[in-house]
């Protein structure tokens, strides 16, 4: 299955997805709203097709039109958000309905949005983790496809917890993507 990966930053989940390419899916495009994203340089070095465009200056609508055109030109049929820090418009989500997934660093439905690890620690939760979900118009609100739990330690900090959860993200995301595009 042809998949596009959308990133804004370092792209470690994109790298995990790239490592697991094979019969189930191929990455046909890595796209970023930040032309300086570290993950974009890595993708280019790997010989992956890339698309970089900032919405700054042109506005969200024109940005998303160009992104949509690039995705179609690349032959993408599925979109995996991997540290993509921009909200997709309702129009874009509707165009790709049921074909966009995201990885989020909490055990959804808990802690949508930002600062998930700090919030889990502050709440005294026994575990944090990550979730892969379908993207809908509601932020971090679509159907959950898979989750991985990580125990919270008494001396945990958001940084330490994030590092342990990230290891699980890299296992979870390729596995869920494979199952999702197969279904
Ligand atoms: C990950 O923690 C992911 O769950 C969240 O943003 C972070 C992206 O990290 N959505 P990376 O760019 O994949 O390294």
From TrEMBL:
Metabolic or biological pathway: Purine metabolism; IMP biosynthesis via de novo pathway; N(2)-formyl-N(1)-(5-phospho-D-ribosyl)glycinamide from N(1)-(5-phospho-D-ribosyl)glycinamide (10-formyl THF route): step 1/1
Binding site for (6R)-10-formyltetrahydrofolate: 60, 85-88, 102
Alphabetized PROSITE patterns for the sequence: GART (PS00373)
Binding site for N(1)-(5-phospho-beta-D-ribosyl)glycinamide: 11-13
Pfam families in the cross-refs: Formyl_trans_N
Keyword list, A-Z: Purine biosynthesis, Transferase
Name of protein: Phosphoribosylglycinamide formyltransferase
Native species: Sphingomonas endophytica
Source species taxonomy: Bacteria, Pseudomonadati, Pseudomonadota, Alphaproteobacteria, Sphingomonadales
């Amino acid at each position: 299955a042809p998949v596009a990966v959308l990133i804004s930053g370092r792209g470690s989940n994109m790298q995990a997805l790239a490592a697991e390419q094979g019969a189930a899916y191929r990455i046909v495009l890595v796209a970023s709203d930040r032309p300086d994203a570290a993950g974009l340089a890595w993708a280019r070095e790997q010989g992956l097709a890339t698309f970089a465009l900032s919405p700054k200056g042109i506005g969200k609508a024109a940005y998303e039109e160009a992104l949509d055109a690039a995705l179609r030109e690349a032959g993408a049929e599925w979109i995996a958000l991997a540290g993509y820090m921009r909200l997709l418009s309702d129009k874009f989500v509707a165009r790709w309905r049921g074909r966009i997934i995201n990885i989020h660093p909490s055990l959804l439905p808990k802690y949508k949005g930002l600062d998930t690890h700090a919030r889990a620690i502050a709440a005294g939760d026994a575990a944090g983790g990550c979730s892969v979900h379908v993207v809908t118009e509601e932020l971090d609100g679509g159907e959950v496809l898979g989750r991985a739990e990580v125990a919270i330690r008494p001396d945990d900090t958001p940084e330490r917890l994030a590092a342990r959860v990230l290891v699980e993200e890299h296992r979870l995301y390729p596995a869920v993507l494979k199952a999702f595009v197969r279904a």
